[in-house]
Specification:
single chain, 17 helices
Length: about 350
């Protein structure tokens, strides 16, 4: 049995335009065509479409899906298992919320007057985190379970940043750079050392006004601390580079720095999945890594060698990287393969 593109679109909810695009980039090409030239999709094509749509829901870019599916490590059963796990988490979370609302409703029906503001604040916070984290992930996310001491630490850092801004302290000042490092150490700790959690916390901070109202981290504070942290890193690199190399790095370092957390999170996923450093999924990420590095370091291999030496000699450069020693070795092996060197 085969389906024409229009029927496939109608039955799957994937637009004809998307299917045409998948065909044009070689991601999903129909197994046959009719005598009239119509695309015909068989069960193998539909199984591949299932994989593509599932991987898109998990956040994998289209550019990486083709590479992933070409890998011998890609199995449809594993993808279906992940979908089942995600749905199971969603059902459990919905049951939890329903139970809490039923309890509130029962109290109100009995004339008991709970602290409604507290209930609404709790539900608001829970709903906000629900958009980005599963119940199990929230249990592992220190940000979502901070005690009074943890909250006090963050309030103190935010207050220090605001005081520096009010006093006209530049981000290049030693005290500002030290705050930037302390801030990133706390962020890495309070995201459980998981770069994927960091990516989602960045999205929450950008799209959830309630979070900014709660943590008081204004865009101005965020920008000040990030620049101070960036300058602390650049100061460490400067000792290893020529004036010309450092000038290029200083001019370009910030332009694509926002791409690093997402890339590191994707690298961690393939690392934890046991994908070999030389396998296609990791090599695709290695090429992204090399391109990002070149964007601020240029194309001279000698400059890249100096940066590697800086990372080896300056442990402070690992602050806020979410890269463990094991991951560092794994990334090094993948880079060696990508550059054609012995792993």
């Amino acid at each position: 049995m085969t389906l024409k593109i229009g029927e496939l679109a109608r039955r799957t909810g994937v637009t004809v335009r998307a299917l045409h695009h998948y065909d044009s980039i070689g991601l999903l090409q129909p197994s046959a065509r009719s005598d009239a030239g119509y695309r015909l999709y068989d069960r193998h094509d539909i199984a591949r479409l299932h994989q593509i749509q599932a991987l898109r829901r998990f956040g994998m870019p289209l550019a990486d899906i083709g590479t992933f599916l070409a890998s011998p490590d890609a199995r449809l059963a594993d993808i279906v298992d992940r979908q089942i796990d995600a749905l199971t988490r969603q059902i459990a979370e919905a049951d939890l919320l329903r139970g809490q609302l039923a309890q509130l409703r029962a109290q109100l029906a009995e004339g008991d007057a709970p602290d409604l503001a507290s209930w609404l604040t709790t539900l608001e916070q829970m709903t906000m985190y629900d958009k980005y984290f599963s119940k199990q992930e929230r249990e592992r996310l220190p940000f979502a379970n901070q005690d009074d001491a943890g909250q006090a630490e963050w309030r103190a850092m935010v207050a220090r940043a605001k005081a520096m801004i009010a006093a006209g302290t530049p981000p290049s000042a030693l005290e500002a750079r030290q705050l930037g490092q302390q801030w990133m150490i706390a962020v890495e700790r309070d995201t459980g050392g998981d770069p994927d959690f960091m990516v989602r916390m960045i999205a929450m901070q950008a799209h959830e006004p309630e979070l900014r109202a709660h943590n008081r981290i204004t865009p101005e504070v965020e920008a000040f601390v990030l620049e101070a942290f960036t300058l602390s890193r650049l100061a460490l690199f400067e000792a290893y580079l020529s004036p010309e190399e450092f000038a290029f790095m200083n001019a370009n370092y910030r332009k694509r720095s926002h791409e690093w957390p997402g890339l590191i999170a994707r690298v961690r996923k393939v690392f934890e999945a046991g994908v070999a450093p030389g396998a296609p999924p990791m090599q695709a990420l290695a090429r992204e890594w090399i391109a990002l590095t070149r964007s601020y370091a240029g194309d001279d291999p000698a400059t890249h060698a100096k940066l590697r030496l800086a990372y080896e000699n300056e442990p402070m450069l690992m602050i806020g990287s979410w890269i463990t020693d094991e991951m560092k070795g794994y990334i090094g092996q993948a880079m060696a393969v990508a550059h054609g060197r012995p792993a």
